[in-house]
Amino acid sequence: MLDVCLLGCGGMMPLPKRWLTSLLTRYNGSSLLIDCGEGTQIAMKEAGMSSNPIDTICFTHYHGDHIAGLPGLLLGMGNSDRTDPVVMIGPKGLSHVVNSLRVIAQELPFDIIYKEITKEEEEFFEHGYHIRAFRVRHNVTCYGYVIDIPRAGKFDVEAAKSQNIPIVAWNPLQKGQTIEIDGITYTPDMVMGPDRRGIKVTYCTDTRPCESIVKNAKASDIFICEGMYGDKEKFPDAKKKKHMMFTEAAKLARDAEVDELWLTHFSPSLVNGRQYMKEVRSIFPRAHLGKDGKFVELNFIDEE
Ligand SMILES: [Zn+2]
Ligand SMILES: [Zn+2]
Predict the structure, then answer these.
(1) Which fold has domain 2-149+197-298?
(2) Which of 107, 154, 231, 266 has a Cα-to-Cα distance from 76 of 20 to 30 A?
(3) Angle of helix 94-101 relative to helix 70-79, nearest 10 degrees?
(4) What is the C-alpha to C-alpha distance for residues 281 and 286, in angstroms, rounded to an integer?
(5) What dihedral do alpha carbons 19, 31, 62, 12 form, nearest 10°?
(6) What is the Cα–Cα distance from 34 to 73, expressed in whole angstroms?
(7) In angstroms, what is the span from residue 216 Cα to ligand 1's centroid?
(8) Where along the chain do its domains lie?
């Protein structure tokens, strides 16, 4: 139902065999990209993904390792004859930053619609995605994102019959529409059960641990979180550069009661992340090291 692909898992600079951190999701024919560092286009091709269906691009912040790949990506999308507009979401300054980068990608066959985040938390609805941006703690303004695919409640046939709701109204009501027939108004709440559990993915980098992450990542199916360093000796660096240790990400995953943690945004100095995973899993057992192209298809949980 929702495809999730971690295109890359590196921080600061792309390395051979480690692209910069970026996430691509696919839902109902519409793709969403979060962050676009140098090489994201290639990472996408290596993962067997296409850039053409990307309708929405979200940016966590404007450090080069999260946005330098954008002009090339836009040119690539233009060359593949895309004409539908692309929505971009990011912290204040979005249109200025993107337009500066677009000096080398001015002629595009599609429009760009800018949606700047100005509050601590902000919600957007794009192509069936319910997107929530939440402020985190980096050395520049930075946001994490919750990608939610909501799921409506079940249609109650007995309730529809007992209230004499005409059959022509059933389908619109099921789609959440209010409908009027012969002067009588029918609303979805008359026949729809409570909302069911949807699909929730949280992506969060670059930041120190903070309460807003636990709150927003709560009960995510997948929590993709930065873990810049594994080695304890790097803790002063993590604090100074406003990044996180593997174990700090694990504590957030535990506190947010997520299903799974994927670590990402590794320091170029991190060579063998596996050696730290035993300690990480002692804090949060369902923790995984991110890797380029890590992919999962998430489905709605059948509640029957
Ligand atoms: Zn970064
Ligand atoms: Zn950064």
Answers:
(1) Metallo-beta-lactamase; Chain A (3.60.15)
(2) 266
(3) 70
(4) 7
(5) -10
(6) 13
(7) 20
(8) 2-149+197-298, 153-194
84 catalytic per annotation: no
**How would you write the pLDDT of the chain (304 residues) with one tens digit per residue?**
899 999 999 999 999 999 999 999 999 999 999 999 999 999 999 999 999 999 999 999 999 999 999 999 999 999 998 999 999 999 999 999 999 999 999 999 999 999 999 999 999 999 999 999 999 999 999 999 999 999 989 999 999 999 999 999 999 999 889 999 999 999 999 999 988 999 999 999 999 999 999 999 999 999 999 999 999 999 999 999 999 999 999 999 999 999 999 999 999 999 999 999 999 999 999 999 999 999 999 999 875 4
Question: Residue 167 Cα, ligand 1 centroid: separation in angstroms?
Answer: 54
Ligand 1 centroid to Cα of residue 66, in Å, is: 6
- Number of Cβ atoms within 10 Å of the Cβ of 259: 13
